[in-house]
Amino acid sequence: MKTAIFALSLITLALQGSLAPAQTFVADADLFAADEDLFEAEADLSAALLAPTCFKLQDPKRSCLLVGNTVVDYKSPRFNLVELNGAWAGPGNETPYIYIYGEGNPIFVEMSLLNRPDGFGYFVDQDTIVVVFPDDRDYTGTLLDSNTILWSNNTIWRKR
Questions:
Q1: Which of 4 and 134 is assigned the larger pLDDT?
Q2: CA atoms of 65 and 98, how far apart (whole Å)
């Protein structure tokens, strides 16, 4: 019962916007095998739940990263799955690779094909990322859609 009360408190805080907007949560398919009676107020809450954006992780497999104040229906989770992992094309047709992981700085940008050090970063919210490029500076990226990133220096990367 204490677990149910704690979980309901977290859900209430999330719905009220009291949790920090940059919080992240890694969802795994096994996580949703919770007890049937974990939430007694499930029927009241399920109407308020929307399909959140969940960024597919490179590792661990079958997992995705929820960003922000996210509430998930554990019985039948639905996500707007976004795949950022893989090759991207910069304005000069260069090929950086982005990988999303579940711990620490979850965004890794491989720049080895460009003879540059790799970048690392994090999600600000479900539409915004920040990546630090050690040989340059940090840039904010706006996810225009799942295939396009507009960077704060006005360059655009497109998914290959």
A1: 134
A2: 14
